[in-house]
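In this supplementary section we document a worked example of the pipeline. Step one takes a protein sequence of length 195 as its only input; no multiple sequence alignment statistics are reported here. Step two produces a three-dimensional model, which step three serialises into structure tokens for compact storage. The input and output of this example are shown verbatim.
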Amino acid sequence: MHSWQTKLTIDKFNKMKIYTKQGDGGTTSLVGGTRISKAHIRIESYGNVDELNSCLGVVMGYIEDAEWLEYFIAIQNELFIIGSHLAAGSDNTYPLPEIKETFISELEAAIDELDQILPELKFFILPSGHASVSHCHVARCVCRRAERVVVALDELEGVDKNIVKYLNRLSDFLFTFARYFAKVYMVEEVAWKTS
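The serialised model returned by step three reads:
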């Protein structure tokens, strides 16, 4: 037996397996154990938040400023908290981390900070000019989709109102950060031309 095979054998006794086979029938467990269809809008809601988090990981590959990188890691952690609430269901009794109002106010402060160093916005911007800009806009679009799905879930079952506020503000932050990338990488913002 090879050393890696030995490690795999040992690991299966000491670690949680990545695959459980419990979802093979098209259902998944919420926090607390309730099983629902993988096509349920609740799964769609936190699936979009998970996709957004992965998009932010790509965006972070272009960030050279250590403070902004640290802030994006904080956002990723906040999205995990939001995902845990969305994965819990409306009847959950399992204790979850709090979605704090400061999550939202910190995004607003970050937008204001960036606005102070960016040129005045005078036209609609196309999501292009540099890969960093485009990736940030992709993240913004995924964030908007996540917000729409969470609003739909809220209309059906109700969700913490701070989740919608947070996603709304995060998309504004990502738009602003895309503009910041254009400044950092010294590329001209591409204006939308109507003709």
